[in-house]
């Protein structure tokens, strides 16, 4: 089980030096810390997640696939509690399915396809093609989306319009 901050910090709400350094280095955000505390209490230390992102209208929570159901909870009671505590709708996304993750970051823009791009240096990246006429529907900049998704996805992600 893991959270962006250590269990002791999540439990006590007081940041240790290591977690405080992560915050100062922008490896984690204030939102990650806030959610860690809520999630820790909610699951008695049994729930985990990787990162959270404030999308304006809603919050995206990235976690391991097997954690998604637990965090949502029976009849979505946990999810509702989380949303009410944060004052925003929360979407829980399991890593592994890049398409789902990308969908939430670009919605309501339409994804035309996701291709693997083979670079000359031998590495690969994933190219997400978004319907060109939806370009102005993106709530956050292309560069920010690429950076956010690449920060937790296995592959680098680049966005293009088609
Ligand atoms: Zn800590």
What would the keywords be for this entry?
162 residues; alpha/beta; GMP Synthetase, Chain A, domain 3; 2 domains; three-stranded mixed sheet; 7 helices; 6 strands; 40% helix; binds zinc ion
List the helices and strands and how they pair.
Layout: H1 7-12, H2 17-24, H3 30-42, E1 51-54, E2 58-63, H4 65-72, H5 77-86, E3 89-94, H6 98-106, E4 111-118, E5 124-130, H7 142-152, E6 156-161
Helix pairs in contact: 3-5
Structure characterization notes:
- The chain is of the alpha/beta class and 162 residues long.
- The chain folds into 2 domains: 7-95, GMP Synthetase, Chain A, domain 3, CATH 3.30.300; 99-161, GMP Synthetase, Chain A, domain 3, CATH 3.30.300.
- It has helices spanning 7-12, 17-24, 30-42, 65-72, 77-86, 98-106, 142-152; strands at residues 51-54, 58-63, 89-94, 111-118, 124-130, 156-161.
- A 3-stranded mixed beta sheet has the order 1-2-3, with helices on both faces. A 3-stranded mixed beta sheet has the order 4-5-6.
- The longest helix has 13 residues, at 30-42.
- The chain is globular, with a radius of gyration of 17 Å.
- The model has no long low-confidence stretch (mean pLDDT 90).
- Zinc ion (ZN) is lined by residues 5-6, 8-9, 16, 18-19.
CATH class of the largest domain: Alpha Beta
- Chain oligomer state: single chain
**What separation lies between the terminal Cα atoms?**
40 Å
- Rg, nearest Å: 17 Å
Number of domains as seen in the coordinates: 2
**Named CATH architecture of the largest domain:** 2-Layer Sandwich
Question: Biggest sheet: strands, sense, closure?
Answer: 3 strands, mixed
Superfamily (CATH H level) name of the largest domain: K homology (KH) domain
Shape: globular
Record the strand order, biggest sheet: 1-2-3
**Unreliable stretches covering 5 or more consecutive residues:** none
Helix/strand class: alpha/beta
The number of helical elements comes to 7
